[in-house]
Design brief:
Helices cover about 80% and strands about 0% of the residues. With about 425 residues, it is mainly alpha-helical. It has a single domain, classed as MFS general substrate transporter like domains (Growth Hormone, Chain: A). It is found in: Cell membrane. Keywords: Cell membrane, Membrane, Transmembrane, Transmembrane helix, Transport. This is MFS transporter. It is a multi-pass membrane protein.
Length: about 425
Amino acid sequence: MSRSSGTRPADRPVRLGLRANAAQFTLLVAVNALVGGMLGQERTVLPLLAEREFGLRAYTATLTFVLAFGLAKAATNYLAGTWSDRYGRKPVLVAGWLVAVPVPLLLIWAPSWTWIVLANVLLGISQGLTWSTTVNMKIDLVGPARRGTAMGLNEAAGYAAVAVTALATGYLAESYGLRPAPFLLGLAYAALGLGLSTLAVRETRQHARLEASGHTARPDGRHDHLHEDLTDRQVFAQTSFKEPALSAASQAGLVNNLNDGLAWGLFPVLFAAGGLSIGRIGILAALYPAVWGVGQLLTGALSDRWGRKRFITLGMWVQALGLALVALGDTFALWAVAAVLLGAGTAMVYPTLLASIGDVAHPAWRARSVGIYRLWRDGGFAAGALLAGVVADLLGVRAAVWTVAVLTLLSGLVVQARMYETHRRAG
């Protein structure tokens, strides 16, 4: 087999499957853990930094860093999918790590909140390039049979690293102050991620081409209109609005990250107002993504057996219950239960949504469809920052949590009504 990108030896056969590509898949899991760690360095510390070092009192102003991150990541997700199809996966991954390197330095040295917002623009661009690309590369490698498992492993690695880093930065901040110690972890992650992606990761676009060459239509004819030759505009329309499963997944992803934006920006403030120490806030900030991360090891694989739709619908409703308990709670114990529920619901949803996109989208334009889905999903960070900030300033933090809980419940109803089962063996 000839080289497709100059990064794979000519005598190395291209095969699909988790076992056949175990070494590269494992490496990409490790790389995505580092991507998650870059996000985790902010989860505990940054909302407290806004209030204690920069004197921000309005919730809308505090959440500008989440807004900047969400807008930058959403837009970059779309570009990452297009660039991955055009130039290959590996160059996009390496570019994402290059953008990540200045982020912890800006967080350490920022003399004003504007610098923090700029750092989060760069973080959003980096996350859009790196996380989107590791998703596409794992989907490329495993083929159609184990997509749920692959996405469970990918997202588990990323969000377990978010949790571990959030916990570690909480203890570092309590012991050594809010800056610079917590962000030195991010600097180490960026250096290691760039090195591995440049020296060890191999191109996977040829795996997608192999799958496309053997792609067969569904026996029910549901995807017959989604032929191989779609323009960028057509892929956007199908993913966002027209195709029932793709569009239902896109709106669920948006609402999922809307409530994650709320959790990231306002939960530490709510917990601090409840009298919790930075160390305990760090535990709660870590517990939610820890359950989310580890839970995906189970939910992703089970969705390959039982189907995607039931996990997505139930997961949105479990998230809504967790948010309601956050709004009702005033003790560490009750907030811990709420964090577990929120993490469990997100674990049911997160890898399953990505797997459903992979089920429906043709391999020839799948990377673009994943990018568009992630554009909507991570646009939820920006929507959550705006909505939560405005409602919190007008009515209080708990009212903002209740508002997002209701939206999450309604999103599950949309999935139940609009989405069909996308996994062939479960359909």
